[in-house]
Amino acid sequence: MDISIIIPVLNEQEKIGKDLANAAAFLHNNNLRGEIIIVSDGSKDNTVQVARSANCPAARVIDYRPTRGKGHAVRTGIKDSQGEVVLFIDSGNTIPYTNVAAGLHMIRDGRCDIAHSSRYLPHSRIVAPHILPRRIASFVFRKILLLFMGLPMRFTDTQCGLKIYKGEIARQLYGECITDGFMFDIEIILRAQRQGYKICEFPIEWTADPDSRLSMSRTPLNMLKELLRIKRALAGSR
Predict the structure, then answer these.
(1) Please, which of 73, 82, 115, 224 could form a disulfide with 39 given CB 3.0 to 4.6 Å?
(2) Residue, of 134 and 165, whose pLDDT is higher
(3) CA 232/CA 227 separation, integer angstroms
(4) Residues 21-35: pLDDT tens digits?
(5) What are phi and psi of 76, to 5 degrees?
(6) Residue 7, by phi and psi: left (phi above 0), alpha (psi -120 to 50) or beta?
(7) Other CB atoms closer than 10 Å to residue 150's CB: what's the count?
(8) Cβ contact 215:134 at 8 Å
């Protein structure tokens, strides 16, 4: 199988139909043999029913209770994947599937093992940004995050919602991952660096989702706890 597309969702009944249609069109337009894995992180609306009733033979749905976090959802989908290349992408078409090809080519050409999308590269384009307070908070958070976790400043966007991996590397890294929440990206980057995998970034077109599940007022403390847990876990595994 060429590629596995993982879409983590939480209460996305209004978006999941279009997510599936866009993913299926991407596979068809690029002549790819692939699977689309929808992982419902304890959705309480009709997300699962809408996804399962969609006319999309390449898709399957994983549903569990209770809600565990985005990291758990992505990890669940990747561990169940079969593709030679694996990617996860946020629900809601914030990043068009036409952008996936750039990262896919980087991996297939041998330029990297992992390709991260970035909103902040010179050729990236932000169509609709977050509101100003959210942008300021995100900028400060990015800088502090890199320093606190000892990540190279060359990483411009560790949290963007499209990442592409060589399949076996993805399944290995996520099989080791312990983080259930939003900071799973950081743990994966640190584990990948430790094991010598090459990570590159590529530019995208991005539109902010006003219905984001990330709340800057409710989640910072949980993020800090996750980061501390990651640091302890990786320090103990040396």
Answers:
(1) 73
(2) 165
(3) 9
(4) 999 999 999 999 999
(5) -60, -45
(6) beta
(7) 10
(8) no
SS3 of residue 56 by DSSP: coil
pLDDT exceeds 70 at position 217 = no
Task: Name the residue among 173, 206, 218 with its Cα closest to residue 75.
Answer: 173
Q: CA 142, CA 68: separation in Å to the nearest integer?
A: 24
Burial of 21 (0-12, 13-18, 19+ CB in 10 A): middle
Contact between residue 229 and residue 179 where contact means Cβ atoms under 8 Å apart? yes
Domain map (residue ranges) of the chain: 3-236
Instruction: List the alpha helices (DSSP H) in 54-124.
Output: 70-79, 100-108
Copy the structure tokens of residue 17. Answer: 């139909």
Chain center to CA of 195? 20
Residue 23 CA to residue 7 CA, distance in Å, equals: 9
Please give the DSSP secondary-structure letter assigned to residue 171: H
**Do residues 9 and 47 touch, judged by C-beta distance below 8 A?**
yes
Check: CB of residue 110 under 8 Å from CB of residue 200.
Answer: no
Token duo for residue 163: 């990442």
The second-level CATH assignment, the architecture, of 3-236 is Alpha-Beta Complex (3.90)
CA atoms within 13 A on the CB side of 218: 6
